[in-house]
Specification:
Blueprint: E1 7-12, H1 16-27, E2 32-36, H2 60-73, E3 77-80, E4 83-88, E5 109-113, E6 116-125, E7 129-131, H3 149-152, E8 161-164, H4 168-176, E9 184-187, H5 197-204, E10 209-211, E11 215-220, E12 226-231, E13 236-238, E14 241-244, E15 248-250, H6 253-257, E16 281-283, H7 294-312, H8 319-325, H9 338-346, H10 357-366
Parallel strand pairs: 1-2, 1-6, 2-3, 6-16, 8-9, 8-14, 9-10
Antiparallel strand pairs: 4-5, 5-6, 7-15, 11-12, 12-13
Helix pairs in contact: 1-2, 1-7, 4-5, 9-10
Length: 367
């Protein structure tokens, strides 16, 4: 990393996708920071599902805490802060380097976060989206109120289930839930249905109940799980859990500030490695198209981290670069900052085994 930049990579967002991207860029020798405002869908999880090697009793908060500690152990910086702005850096060739120098022409980006302003080479946006919550009364999230069918449908096999909403998504999710249980209702809560004629025809031909009355009350068991809803017509209907289908809002202010291309559905347009329509900016996780699942998000983070490494690594120097810059000198290698070098040789995962702090400092000084 040149002295002109504070970091090689800044990841905005500390969910599974962002932390995985940071894990890869850090372990691949890039000085990385994660700026995380906190919260997010993963943080709300009471239990973790569909993540191989992570058991059910692991909460989202515990999952993320372990991930943060892991990323920091390799030398990445993590800060709980709000990123106010990301913009292209101005001036000359943007890098502060002379033409012909290695890295010349790379402007990088200016990241404003909290009380700080940082010059960075690459930015990863992992800001996700926020689910639109229906009006109360509602059961607790994870105890009868659920936002991920692929994660939580298994919990309601052979149990009574509701789906809230009046659009196509509510109709389709209700019919999908028939794969898991024979007791499914759509709760429109007094809203006029807006689902399509096709969806209406399909609903009429599936054993799904449609309840139009508004919810007036709720009952929970001793563990806080939903037992039933009370309705304006005086009826009480038993449900163990369900899914509100009111859409979501993408946390894309930074993406829009960078004028990134979006899909018709509102997600950020990316290639298979998270590259956006703007060079040097990547997007991963729920902000991008695809299934909103932790393993998928982690895979996207990993691919973006590897792509950034391949983009920024100085070696091997190409024949054109050798002609322009000359051969690689022994003093140029290894291409890793003294800070990351010292952390690596002291880490328990190092091939030679963890060295003492003094040994690590001496190794960095020898570089």
């Amino acid at each position: 990393m040149s002295d002109e930049f504070d970091y090689d990579v800044v990841v905005v967002g500390g969910g599974p996708a962002g932390l995985t991207a940071a894990l890869y860029t850090t372990r691949l020798g890039l000085d990385t920071a994660v700026f995380d405002r906190g919260g997010g869908r993963a943080a709300m999880m009471r239990d973790t599902h569909n993540v191989v090697g992570v058991t059910e009793e692991t909460s989202g908060a515990e999952f993320l805490r372990t991930a943060r500690e892991q990323v920091e152990s390799y030398g990445a910086d993590y800060e709980r802060t709000f990123v106010e702005d990301v913009s292209a850096r101005d001036g000359g060739n943007g890098s502060g380097l002379e033409e012909g120098d290695e890295g010349a022409g790379e402007a990088g980006f200016r990241v404003v976060a909290g009380d700080g302003e940082y010059a960075v080479r690459r930015v990863v946006l992992a800001t996700g989206f926020s689910d639109r919550r229906p009006d109360p009364p509602l059961p607790p999230t994870g105890r009868g109120l659920h936002y991920c069918l692929h994660c939580d449908a298994y919990m309601f096999v052979d149990e009574p289930v509701y789906v809230m909403g009046a659009g196509d998504s509510a109709a389709y999710v209700a019919m999908i839930m028939l794969n898991f249980t024979d007791r499914v209702d759509v709760l429109t809560r007094g809203d006029e249905p807006t689902w399509s004629e096709d969806a209406a025809t399909m609903l009429e031909n599936h054993p799904v109940g449609v309840v139009h009355e508004e919810i007036t009350g709720m009952n929970k068991d001793g563990d806080g799980w939903l037992e039933s809803f009370e309705f304006a017509d005086g009826t009480t209907r038993e449900y163990r859990g369900g899914f509100p289908m009111y859409g979501s809002e993408y946390n894309a202010d930074l993406a829009d500030g960078l004028d990134l291309e979006r899909t018709e559905g509102g997600t950020i347009e990316v290639d298979d490695h998270g590259r956006t329509s703007r060079d040097g900016v990547y997007a991963v996780g729920d902000l991008t198209p695809g299934h909103n699942q932790i393993p998928v998000a982690m895979g996207e983070g990993a691919k973006a981290g590897i792509a950034i490494h391949m983009d920024l690594r100085p070696f091997p120097r190409s024949t054109e670069e050798i002609e322009r810059l000359g051969p690689v000198d022994e003093s140029d290698v290894p291409a890793i900052s003294p800070e990351l070098l010292a952390t690596a040789v002291a880490h328990e995962g190092h091939a030679a085994g963890p060295r003492t702090e003094v040994d690590a400092e001496e190794a960095a000084a020898d570089d």
